[in-house]
Amino acid sequence: MSTLTSLARAQAVAAGVAQPIATVRHVHLSDRPLVFVPLGLAGEAHAPLAAMAGTDRQSPRLLVVAQPRNRDHRFGFAAELAAVVLPYLDSFCTGAEDVPAGRGAEPRTRFADAPQVLVPGPAGIGFVRLLGRSTRFRRTDGDFAVPLGVPLLGCWLSYLAERASHPGSGLLLAATDALSAHWASGQSDIEDLNLAALAGWIDPPPGQTGWQAAAAAEDTLTWPPAGPATDPTFDNEVLAPLIAACQRAAGGATEGRARAALTEALAGQLRPTWQLVWHAVDLLRTLPPGDHVSARWNTDKDAFTSYCDYLDAGGAPQPRRDSAVTAARRLSWLERAQAVHAAQRAFDDPLVMAEYRLAGEAFAGEVVAAEPDRVDATGPRRKLRPLVTVATADRVLVSLGTRMSAPGRPGQQARVVSVTSPDDQEGQPGQVALELSGGMGRSLTAAPGSVPEIGEWLCYTTLTDGYQPGASFPPAEETPWTHGGPPAPYVPADEDTGEAWS
Questions:
Q1: Does residue 268 sit in the same domain as residue 368?
Q2: Using CB atoms within 10 A as the burial measure, which of 61, 162, 343, 429 is most buried?
Q3: Does residue 186 fall inside a structural domain?
Q4: What number is the average pLDDT over the span 7-21?
Q5: CATH (domain of 421)
Q6: Rounded to whole angstroms, how far apart are CA atoms 263 and 269?
Q7: Tens digits of per-residue pLDDT, 33-80?
Q8: Cα(179)–Cα(285) distance, integer angstroms
Q9: Whether residues 284 and 427 fall in one domain
Q10: What gap in Å lies between CA 157 and CA 161, rounded to an integer?
C-alpha cells in the first residue's frame, strides 16, 4: 500500500466515507457487460453449485446444480452456462472496423467491440479459471461425453481468465478490484474483498457512515458472501437439507417441489450480490474515463479478434502448462505491460502521479526560465536543444543525465542538466534545468508552442509508455536442457482432463 493510499484510508476513517484515489476511471466499462455471479459447493475443489448470469439487470438467468457432486449435473450446469455466455460472445463477432497501418505494420481489421464479463471479486476470476480447466478438454462423443458447447465454453473461460492477468485488460473484471483502484475505504485490503462492505464505504445509505454500512454488510442473512464461497451457516442449516431432499425425491412425485425450494434458497444467496455488481458499475460510471482507457480497450479488441480467428481455424485448447520458452515470453510481456499500464495511469490522473512525485520519480512546477532557441554545436552537426528551468517544491531524487518526459508533451524528451533542492527554512522552491529534444520540428528553430513557456505548469516523470523492445528468447525447438529441452508438439489428450483436485 502506498503512502498516499494509507493517508486516504486514514481520512476515510475520520470522514466516515471512502476517499477518492483517482480523478478519472482507469477501466473500460462496456455498454452491455455480462455479469456472472457464481457459487461453489464448500468442501469440494471445484463443484459449481449455482450462478446468476446475464446482461439484463432486471432479468438474470439463474443456473442451479441440484446434485453438485454428480458429474452429469455439473456438466449440465456448464452446458446451461454455455447457452448464456457463447451467444453473448458471438454477438461481438459481427461488426468490424479498420485499423490504420502503423510503423512496420499493414492495415488490418478487427471486431468493432469486445465482450466484458464482470464478476464480484478475484475469487470469481479464480472460479472462471478452474471451470475453464475442468471443461475445455472434455469430449462431446465417446465415453463420458459432455453436452455440445461445453469444451468451447472452457476454452473461452480459460482465455478470459488469462487475459484478466494482463494489466489494464477489461475483458474479465472483478468489481472489488475496480472499485478499490478508485476509492480508499477505511478498512483493510482483505476486508475490501467483501463487495457489500466496500460499496458501503463508497456509497453508504442515508444516515449511515461507511463503517456502519460495512458492519451491516457482515450480516450474512442480508448480504450473503459475494461468491463463489457460501456462508457456513447457510450450508449447514439450509443447503445441506435441501440437497438431501432433492436426492431423496429424485424421480419421485415431490422432485419438482424439492428443486423449487433449493432454487429459491440459492436465488436468495445470489440476488444481493447480483445487484451489488451492477451498483459497482453505476459507481464507476460516475468517473470520466482516462485518456488511455480507449487505447487499452483497443488492445482488448485486438486480442479478442485474434482468439476468435484462432478458434475458427480449429485451434486446440490451451495446454495445461506452458513450455519454458512460452512461459518466459509471457512473463516478459506481462512485466512490460505492467510498466506501460502504470505509466498510463499516472499520465491520465494527477492523483496517481502524486504517488510518483512523493517517491521522487516525478516532479511538478512552474517554468521560470526558457531558452527556446538554444543550439548544441558540440557534435558533428548543430542540434536544437532548448533549455527550460522548472521551479518545484517536490524533492527530485533523479540523477543528472536522467531522461524524463511530460505527459502533456508526448514525443519530447527532457534530460536533467542540474537540480537544486528546495530550501524549506527559507521557503524557496528547488529548480530543475532540463535540456529538451524531439517534438519541435526538424529545423534549428522550434515550432510554435513546442517549447514550454515561462509561467507554464508542467509535470516531468521518469515513467514512459513508449515502445520497449522485448527480451530475446530462443525458439521452442532450441529450449536448453536446463529447462527440459525442446518440448514435444502439443496434442490434447484424455489425460489433460485430470487434475490433482479432481
A1: no
A2: 343
A3: yes
A4: 95
A5: 2.40.30
A6: 10
A7: 999 999 998 877 668 999 999 999 999 999 999 888 888 899 999 999
A8: 11
A9: no
A10: 6
Burial class (CB in 10 A: 0-12, 13-18, 19+), 109: exposed
Q: Is residue 469 part of a domain?
A: no
Phi-psi region at 142: left, alpha or beta (left = phi > 0; alpha = psi -120 to 50):
left
Q: Which residue has the cell 424439492?
A: 258
| Averaged pLDDT, 163-175 | 95
Count the helix, strand and coil residues of the chain and give each as a percent rounded to the nearest 5: 40, 15, 45
Cell numbers describing residue 457: 505548469
Same domain, 122 and 261: yes
* Grid-cell match 484515489, residue found: 21
For residue 484, what are the contacts with CB-CB under 8 A and spacing of at least 6? 323, 324
Do 272 and 404 share a structural domain? no
Note whether 140 and 284 are same-domain residues: yes
Query: Which domain, by its residues, includes 118?
Result: 3-320
Based on the fold, state whether residues 316 and 376 are members of the same structural domain. no
331-337-284 Cα angle (round to 5):
125
Q: C-alpha grid cell for residue 330?
A: 509471457
User: What is the CA angle 476-301-313, rounded to 5?
Assistant: 50
| 184, 8 Cβ separation under 8 angstroms | yes
Measured CA to CA, the distance from residue 99 to residue 107 in angstroms comes to 6
Q: From CA 491, how far away is CA 8, in angstroms rounded?
A: 52
Q: What is the pLDDT of residues 446-482, one digit of tens each?
A: 888 888 999 999 999 998 877 666 677 777 776 776 7
Identify whether 494 is part of a domain.
no
381-415 as b/e, with b when 16 or more CB fall inside 10 Å? eeebbbbbbbbbebebebeeebebbbbebeebbbe
| C-beta of residue 33 within 8 angstroms of C-beta of residue 189 | no
Query: What φ, ψ does residue 271 adopt, rounded to 5°?
Result: -60, -45
Contact present, 460 and 404 (Cβ < 8 Å): yes
Q: Is pTM beyond 0.85 here? A: yes
468 burial level (CB within 10 Å; 0-12, 13-18, 19+): exposed
Domain for residue 209, yes or no?
Answer: yes
Question: Domains in the chain: how many in total?
Answer: 2
Please indicate, yes or no, whether residues 42 and 128 belong to a single structural domain of this protein. yes
Query: Residues 276, 142: one domain?
Result: yes
Q: Is the peptide bond before 288 cis (omega within 30 degrees of 0)?
A: no
